[in-house]
Backbone:
């Protein structure tokens, strides 16, 4: 029998499910849109899932690690004030407080939209306190414009000659359809001592390397609602084999960072190609955190659009979120595929 | 847009310079009459009985490709002229910038002019005045914009009195819709007020005057960090305090404008600008029904909500528009005498008869320094009259700043070639060498194990025995089954063909 094999689930993948569900994207836009997984974080048996399409909510998705069953994600409205909506929320991370509750952080991309517009909503950062359980309890929701981070980074880009990110937008007037997006942050993670928040950028690349930011004072800024307290203390390159960061998390098991990486999405000059384009080349890396250490490639997903990665607690499993559809291109299926892999990082 | 102007006439010498820069209309002998006739037939409010002698001597001459037809008004920053594009034969309003403005830097004068034009041009929407071009002729910068036929909301209310909800709601809903689009584009108008809402003869409202527009973004270089900008009667508390301004400042002004439309007066009045500002800061929003008892509670509540002291408590412009649209339907009536479908008596006031006086309502206030709510410092600011600059003519308003162009960056503003990544390290010399806990070079054993890393993907395979070509259901091209692209087509989208002819007959073309 002749077959087309649509990829293989080889070890170490042990479970996979299409977790696409639909929810309103904001109070003003009640039409349900599919979850487009952009970031994952793990809190006591639940995945916290951000969607770059949904502006006012987060999803939670229960995972039974013993039976390796994955429940259907549930939306939770977090933001009731429309002025605090998130646009292009690309990353989520969590931090545990001494009292056992969790702080959840969501970061938007800081990018310009496809019409080159620097929408304020794309620069929002959110923090909330979470108590898991049924029902989930979300408290202390704070949204703050993080444009100061972009301002500072932009100065560094100009100083060292980092080219901005441009990518294809077919409806842009004029001959050049690649519009100015500046760049985009797609992953955040706190350092083990919580002194800094690392932000991984998918675009632009600099000399073929991904760009990482270290930001101090995020909690101060959010507590005081003062964006002036964001302090960019470092911008450094990371060699991901000419890929950018599509997500990032601290892994307490291997005591390093897990990085989901992928090629830049643009410029894309031709819509009439099968999806995903064979240049996606998603991959997973492990990185010690030392700036001179090259991240280590430990898995590839050549035909997946990996958007998120996180360790499931202190288990041997990691979760990978990928977006295999694109509504704007007529593919509404498999907006979010959750893959759970065995990754201990130590000899078995 | 063009009538809320002070009458600061052009200084004589400036008028001479301006006239000298113009050229005669070579078609004057044959076409002037026709142009005039077109204008009259077009109903562009040429004052009855107005003679050419009452107009400046340069009327009839040509600036660029615009024949100047009529001076509409003066402002501190320039003047507005009704003109006709001689190439397109389109009537426009030309906003012409003065060449010299005392106390204003030359570069910023032009940059701000560009900013205004770009701010409005960025928003292509039926409820926003259209910008046709910005250009200059012998050093005279001008913006050519849509010539609106109608009146602004301020004049309508002055002429007709408070509007019934059925008339006020659609007008304000249009304005809120325009602001929604602006806010979605990251633009804050910052000078929403009745005189900047132009109601056309078709009864639609257009938002005008983007002279104080600002990007809703902290990195916008034009951020007025030491100034409060707006019109006192409609100015949000955070603007008065010179705090961070978001799109909510426009919603506040919109709420105050709705109050004006429904009651015929601004929500807070005072003997001075300072009095008015203090009321915005401290006093509760008056109930619309105190002055207009028949106004529904829902609209009164909307005004209070929009004028909330806290920016986060206000609705978005989109929500404001949606509520007003619903209210407009709820209170629709068909017997209004304010606005008929093809015009209104309140629109008949000729522009030439408009009051020239500059009221605080038509003024724009800028302050240097931060206005605090604390009375002591506030009082000091009150006394410091010299720090206030009353700038008439919002239509030609100008405060100074940098241009839109510098913000969007036109390519990100990068200069020079990509440098080596190590150059970043030099800029953060104090940054730590590691953000981890392991020593340099440490790699967990299994991570660093040799061999090809495992690949993973999603489940799916299908039997394609007998098929030679495949395509996606939505795809234009077809591929050989063993082509790498074939594996990338979704299983549920897969269409198979035994021959290339079958594929072509199905409308597919070979893969490039």
Residues:
């Amino acid at each position: 029998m002749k077959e087309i094999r649509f990829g293989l689930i080889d070890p170490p993948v042990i479970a996979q499910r299409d977790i696409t569900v639909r929810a309103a994207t904001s109070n003003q836009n009640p039409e349900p849109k599919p979850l487009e997984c952009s970031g994952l974080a793990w809190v006591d048996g639940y995945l916290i899932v951000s969607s770059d399409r949904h502006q006012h909510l987060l999803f939670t998705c229960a995972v039974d690690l013993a039976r390796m069953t994955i429940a259907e994600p549930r939306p939770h409205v977090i933001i009731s004030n429309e002025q605090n909506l998130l646009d292009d929320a690309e990353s989520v991370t969590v931090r545990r407080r001494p009292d056992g509750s969790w702080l959840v952080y969501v970061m938007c991309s800081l990018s310009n939209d496809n019409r080159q517009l620097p929408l304020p909503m794309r620069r929002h950062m959110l923090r909330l306190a979470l108590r898991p359980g049924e029902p989930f309890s979300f408290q202390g929701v704070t949204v703050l414009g993080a444009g100061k981070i972009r301002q500072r980074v932009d100065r560094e880009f100009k100083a060292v000659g980092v080219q901005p990110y441009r990518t294809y937008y077919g409806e842009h007037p004029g001959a050049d359809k690649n519009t100015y997006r500046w760049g985009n942050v797609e992953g955040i993670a706190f350092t083990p001592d919580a002194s800094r928040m690392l932000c991984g950028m998918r675009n632009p690349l600099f000399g073929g390397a991904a760009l990482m930011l270290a930001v101090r004072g995020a909690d101060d800024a959010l507590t005081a609602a003062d964006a002036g307290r964001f302090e960019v203390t470092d911008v450094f390159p990371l060699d991901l084999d000419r890929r950018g960061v599509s997500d990032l998390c601290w892994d307490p098991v291997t005591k390093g960072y897990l990085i989901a990486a992928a090629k830049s999405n643009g410029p894309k000059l031709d819509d009439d190609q099968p999806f995903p384009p064979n240049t996606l080349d998603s991959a997973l890396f492990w990185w010690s955190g030392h700036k001179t250490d090259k991240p280590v490639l430990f898995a590839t997903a050549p035909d997946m659009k990996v958007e998120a990665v996180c360790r499931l607690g202190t288990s041997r499993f990691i979760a990978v979120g990928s977006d295999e559809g694109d509504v704007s291109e007529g593919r509404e299926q498999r907006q979010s595929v959750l893959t759970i892999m065995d990754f201990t990082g130590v000899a078995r | 847009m063009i009538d809320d102007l002070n009458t600061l006439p052009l200084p004589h010498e400036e008028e001479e310079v301006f006239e000298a820069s113009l050229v005669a209309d070579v078609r004057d002998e044959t076409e002037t009459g026709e142009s005039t006739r077109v204008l009259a037939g077009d109903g562009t409010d040429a004052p009855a009985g107005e003679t050419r002698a009452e107009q400046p001597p340069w009327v009839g001459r040509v600036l660029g490709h615009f024949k100047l037809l009529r001076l509409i008004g003066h402002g501190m920053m320039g003047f507005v002229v009704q003109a006709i594009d001689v190439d397109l034969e389109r009537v426009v309003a030309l906003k012409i910038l003065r060449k010299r403005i005392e106390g204003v830097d030359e570069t910023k004068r032009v940059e701000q002019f560009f900013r205004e034009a770009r701010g409005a041009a960025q928003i292509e929407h039926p409820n926003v005045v259209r910008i046709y071009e910005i250009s200059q002729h012998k050093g005279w910068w001008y913006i050519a914009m849509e010539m609106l036929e109608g009146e602004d909301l301020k004049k309508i209310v002055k002429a007709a009195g408070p509007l019934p909800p059925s008339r006020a709601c659609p007008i304000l809903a249009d304005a809120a819709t325009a602001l929604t689009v602006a806010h979605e584009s990251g633009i804050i108008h910052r000078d929403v007020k009745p005189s900047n809402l132009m109601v056309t003869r078709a009864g639609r409202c257009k938002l005008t005057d983007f002279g104080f527009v600002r990007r809703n973004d902290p990195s916008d270089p034009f951020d007025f960090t030491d100034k409060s900008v707006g019109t006192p009667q409609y100015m949000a508390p955070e603007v008065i305090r010179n705090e961070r301004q978001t799109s909510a400042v426009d919603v506040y002004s919109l709420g105050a404008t709705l109050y004006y439309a429904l009651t015929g007066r601004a929500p807070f009045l005072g003997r001075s600008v300072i009095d008015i500002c203090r009321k915005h800061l401290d006093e509760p929003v008056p109930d619309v029904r105190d002055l207009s008892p028949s106004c529904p509670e829902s609209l009164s509540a909307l005004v209070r909500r929009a004028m909330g002291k806290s920016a986060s408590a206000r609705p978005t412009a989109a929500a404001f528009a949606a509520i007003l649209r619903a209210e407009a339907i709820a209170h629709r009536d068909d017997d209004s005498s304010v606005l008929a479908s093809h015009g209104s008596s309140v629109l008949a006031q000729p522009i030439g008869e408009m009051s020239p006086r500059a009221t605080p309502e038509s003024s724009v206030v800028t302050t240097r320094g931060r206005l605090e709510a604390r009375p002591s410092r506030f009082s000091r600011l009150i006394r410091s009259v010299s720090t206030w600059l009353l700038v008439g003519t919002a239509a030609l308003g100008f405060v100074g700043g940098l241009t839109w162009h510098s913000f969007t960056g036109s390519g990100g503003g990068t200069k020079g070639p990509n440098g080596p990544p190590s150059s970043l390290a030099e800029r953060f010399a104090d940054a730590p060498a590691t953000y981890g806990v392991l020593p340099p070079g440490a790699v967990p054993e299994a991570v660093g194990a040799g061999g090809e890393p495992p690949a993973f993907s999603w489940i799916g395979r299908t039997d394609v025995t007998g098929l030679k070509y495949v395509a996606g259901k939505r795809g234009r091209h077809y591929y050989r089954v063993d082509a790498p692209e074939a594996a990338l087509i979704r299983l549920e989208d897969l269409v198979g063909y035994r021959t290339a002819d079958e594929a072509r007959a199905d409308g597919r073309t070979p893969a490039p």
Remarks:
- Chain A has one domain: 18-342.
- The first strand of chain A starts at residue 3 and ends at 5.
